[in-house]
Design a protein that fits this description.
This protein has 406 residues and is of the alpha/beta class. The chain has two domains: 6-178 and 372-402, Rossmann fold (3-Layer(aba) Sandwich), CATH 3.40.50.2000; 191-363, Rossmann fold. The protein is 45% helix and 16% strand. It has 17 helices and 13 strands. The protein has helices at 15-30, 53-59, 77-96, 108-119, 139-149, 158-166, 181-187, 193-200, 220-239, 255-269, 281-291, 306-309, 341-353, 355-363, 373-383, 388-391, 398-402, and strands at residues 6-12, 34-41, 63-67, 100-104, 124-127, 152-155, 174-176, 208-212, 243-247, 273-276, 298-302, 318-321, 334-337. The strands form two sheets. Strands 3-2-1-4-5-6-7 form a seven-stranded parallel beta sheet, with helices on both faces. Helix 1 packs across helix 15 (373-383) and helix 9 crosses helix 13. The chain is globular.
Length: 406
């Protein structure tokens, strides 16, 4: 272990988890007890997939190392990316020589980072373990695999805590810290209306759909249905005077057909259909904040986990399309619909124009809450003993062996 501040390496491989990690990273970076080394990989380093390293630079955080990986949208590319990230991260960790590692959520690139850290006997802290998706993405298996590897689990909700305990994780390893998005809401840390309008070139007083759709890698037929239904719904809403702000999907298998459909629709519909590879965290959260502000009419449509985890914290309505987020914990802001364009249009119009429903959302239940989550995580990283007791994880079946059960 290093002398002086405890040295923490954090890995980020995509725009989504970087936006949720940022309060943690800033709290670690500002804490004199800690030293942060940030390693980037995945879509941050790919211009074709958004090249979101610019957002990291905008945050003011320094990048200690970079671990590129393959991002072709084929089934074989995912295990290749895991392997490349594992190798690249092991080399980065050897150069950095940290005391601990922080990984976030359930992306396959993150899995590679977690494999490298844990197999190098580096105490690994995992945020967002215990969640469930169930919708045909690979997230659940990856998330649970990271949880079995990780040494400390920092959960965002009580249900996730319970799931990890049922998986056999020792109770002292599982700590409920809350949802990081609560820090953004409390601190009003997001772009204001004028900045967003200048960036996108639209008037946000007009009814607006914020759209993000990802593929369901285990069910390409569902991906096709949800993509076709959503794109048709966007065209119909557009003709009814609703403007659209859409972002490219992630880099999972099947993203290419969604991306092609969005590009084609953007060419057809013109400037009130705004399509960007990535909006950046500040603009995205600023739009969600307007969605929950009386006097503005904005709804998040698609199948992003942001509809469950982030939109609710801002009281922004979400129309959740299809099956990808089927098992995800959700609040009263979420309206679940199928892949039929009529259902999607009806859900979007209710979310935009039904004032009774919008008022209900502002008064409703939202499960992802927290208070000073970034500093809480920094305190834990600075204080938990990083010893062999932490590294020596028990098997969830160990007690059966002790009782003589083979």
């Amino acid at each position: 272990m290093s002398v002086g501040p405890r040295h923490v390496v954090a890995y980020s491989g995509s725009r989504a988890e970087f936006g949720l990690q940022l309060p943690l990273l800033k709290a670690i970076d500002a804490d004199k007890r800690l030293q942060l080394s940030l390693v980037l990989g995945g879509t941050h380093l790919s211009e074709e997939r958004g090249g979101t390293e610019w957002e990291v630079a905008e945050s003011g955080l320094k990048v200690a190392d970079r671990v590129p990986c393959s991002l072709a949208e084929t089934r074989s590319a995912t295990p290749l990316a895991i392997g490349e990230t594992t190798i690249g991260m092991s080399e980065a960790l050897s150069r950095i020589s940290p005391d601990a590692c922080l990984v976030y959520a359930d992306r396959f690139e993150t899995f590679g980072a977690a494999i490298a850290a844990t197999q190098m006997a580096i105490p690994t802290f995992h945020v967002e373990g215990g969640d469930v998706t169930e919708g045909g993405a690979l997230d659940d298996a990856v998330r649970d695999a990271i949880s079995r590897l990780a040494h400390i689990h920092l959960t965002t909700n009580d249900v996730a805590t319970t799931r990890l305990l049922r998986m056999g994780e020792e109770p002292w390893r599982v700590i409920h810290v809350g949802a990081v998005v609560a820090d953004y809401v409390r601190n009003r840390d997001y772009a204001e209306r004028d900045e967003i309008e200048d960036f996108l070139g639209i008037d946000l007083k007009q009814p607006t759909v914020l759209f993000t759709l990802h593929p369901t890698p285990l069910d390409m037929e569902a991906t096709a249905r949800e993509s076709l239904g959503s794109l048709d719904a966007l065209a119909r809403l557009f003709k009814r005077g609703v403007q659209v702000v859409a972002t490219d999907p992630n880099s999972d298998h099947g993203s290419d057909q969604i991306r092609a459909g969005l590009n084609n629709l953007a060419r057809q519909l013109g400037p009130r259909f705004v399509l960007r590879k990535s909006l950046g965290r500040r603009v995205f959260h600023g739009l969600l904040a307007l969605g929950g502000t009386p006097g503005f009419r904005l709804v998040l449509v698609g199948n992003s986990s942001a509809g469950m985890k982030e939109a609710g914290a801002f009281n922004c309505p979400c129309v959740n399309v299809g099956q990808r987020q089927r098992g995800r914990l959700r609040g009263d802001n979420v309206l679940d619909v199928g892949s039929n364009s009529h259902e999607i249009v009806s859900g979007a119009e209710a979310s935009l124009f039904d004032d009774t429903y919008r008022s209900k959302i502002r008064k409703g239940h939202h499960p992802y809450t927290g208070r000073h989550v970034g500093q809480t995580v920094a305190d834990l990283l600075a204080s938990i003993p990083l010893d062999t007791v932490l590294l020596n994880k028990k098997s969830p079946h160990g007690e059966l062996v002790e009782q003589g059960v083979p």
